[in-house]
């Protein structure tokens, strides 16, 4: 939604969509913290080097 709004030149709408996304991310983080669950990346794995 953010990209579509920007492509249309509607910066205000893009800002609103970005704000909603960020609030969702903050909410998800609060839930993970409350349940002591670590964040897991969707596409990458942490590489441990010895």
Automatic annotation (TrEMBL):
Region feature Disordered, mapped onto this chain: 21-50
Compositionally biased region (Basic and acidic residues): 21-32
Highest taxon above the source species: Eukaryota
Pfam families: Oxysterol_BP (PF01237)
Name of the featured protein: Uncharacterized protein
Species, as recorded: Cirrhinus mrigala (Mrigala)
